[in-house]
Amino acid sequence: MLAKLDLAHTSPLTSEHARQLDGLLETLSPEEAIWISGYLAGFVRRAQPANAASAAPATGGTPITIVYGSETGHAAALAERAGELARQKGLTATVVDTADFRPQDLKGVKRLVVVTSTHGEGSPPDTAADFYEFLHSRKAPRLEGVKFAVLGLGDSTYEHFCQTGKDIDKRLQELGAERIHARADCDVDYEDQANEWIEAVLGFFSKEDGPSTPKLSVVQGTGAGAVPSASPHPHAAVVHDAKNPFPATVLESIVLNGRGSDKETRHIELSLEGAGLTYEPGDSLGVIPQNDPDMVEALIEALKLDGEEPVPAGGAEIPLREALTRHYEITALTPRFLELYGNAAQAGKLRALTAAENRSELMAYMAGRQVIDVVTEFPVEGLGGKALTEMLRRLQPRLYSLASSPAAYPDEAHLTVSVVRYDSHGRHRKGVASTYLAERCDLDETVPVYVERNKNFRLPADGSTPIIMVGAGTGVAPFRAFLQHRQETGAAGRNWLIFGERRFRTDFLYQLEWQRFLKDGVLSRMDVAFSRDQEKKVYVQHRVLEKGRDIYAWLEEGAHLYVCGDANGMAPDLHAALVDVFQREGGMSREQAEDHLKTLQREKRYQRDVY
Asked: Of 3, 66, 70, 110, which one is least surrounded by beta carbons within 10 A?
């Protein structure tokens, strides 16, 4: 329950309204109050006219429109942060998802800030595809008089690093807009660079507007996850996020594969009791992993370092061994590491590889190699622990689709983890987070976790709506949560699961649970594709082609389609199969079929969670 606030003296409400609201607040938990704040923000936003994003208010200077394209939520969070900071500076700013931004509104925008991630091999996020295509189409308007800046997020281990941001930045300039600040291309370790960029861009607009009186912003963001920007109430619940994760106790860790499988897939159950964390089916759990101690020791030995040398990490000075275990990425290579280490080692080969014109050669060299391979191939004398850590990026959380519904398992989070092990360049490799969870997180030990929202992978609000779920391997995890949730909430809609793995006998993940869902009538239909049970491999996209008539019929009846799995192989192949289905069953041209899929995406009836 929240403590009583003196609203009559701290708000613009009438005394009667203040009394009524104060009475309500006394009965609410912190979580309920947060939810209501988001609901009210959304209510206010819905009450605004459709072109509110481009309408200039009477105060606050020329409005800033901040649009974001986000896959995992990081771009969205940065955009909301920029909007909040703008309002604190007395600027007028509107934050909008590219999925909700109307192309015709672009003509009315005078100040445009774009924050976007890059998905897969250089593609825009699904939610930003329409915005991206409109900008690059012949329909895009001339933008003389528009001032803009672009912030890109990406992963430098991919060849097309921050490509979406680069493309949008270039296109806006081609359309006549004026770039007021250089584009920032942020790696996964983006916080400091992004914050500096946001400050610089808003600083430009502040100087342009002249002195103004900062405004008190009541609510940051919109929707159920919105939080008040004022100081938190002394009794408010602790917020757990990537910087302040919750230590979740391991309750179960079970191998799902049968004897003889060449894979190891684990079902892991974690306790969230006391965390105050809430989630919905479709969200992910962020896991803060630790590096393999053997890999840490190998690196220290190869560079002849002192494992007890104090180095900066996590805001303090700690022993190098601990820093390399808990704070720094020591497996995945980055162009920045190769450049800095190449200079320290005076390695001509590395210097040549990191030249801008050799990006493809650089990616080829990085493939399958890790930091230990580089320091072994190019030894360097006298490199200290501090110098090494300055070359490395921070160890990043790993996101896993939640395989449970809180309606079925209150205060628990279930994960489906494929344990990564392979050989490359003469060394045995291990996935950082997957082997951390499988090998070093025993029962009753704790794992640092937090919830990562995914508003773009949600069950339909109407429980009577049919759904089709297509998942390969661990991509089936969120669909276990979907079915649990629909069973617990009594949703009447039909549910169809199409699942793919390697072998029926050893790799049929959650087989008994699917059979139970079928028996109970929760799962209306299930089709499977086991790729290695016959000479010719069969994948989920082949099942989609086979069952195309029924899939098309379900979609025509209003079904929602969900896809979860590999972004580089399964997802594009499945997308192509759906295009073929629409051509064959709907009598569409290829262009019409592609447009139909885009329409389904815009209507939130075709949602993907791919990685």
From this structure: 3
